[in-house]
Write a structure and sequence with these properties.
Layout: H1 3-14, H2 19-26, H3 30-39
Length: 53
């Protein structure tokens, strides 16, 4: 994967897209997206949509 594509993944995630959405759009595994985010130093959001009551 190119550095440009990696930067696009990080930017999309920081703009609010989920790792699952990004993975689906790029047809890669969600774990690939998460590994790219972690290696770029991006703060990975917790799973889910917030606290459950």
């Amino acid at each position: 994967m190119t550095d440009r594509r990696r930067a696009e993944i990080v930017a999309a995630y920081q703009d609010g897209k989920s790792s699952r959405q990004i993975a689906s759009e790029l047809q890669v595994a969600k774990s690939t997206v998460l590994n790219i985010l972690r290696s770029a130093g991006a703060e990975v959001r917790p799973r889910g949509r917030g606290s459950r009551r």
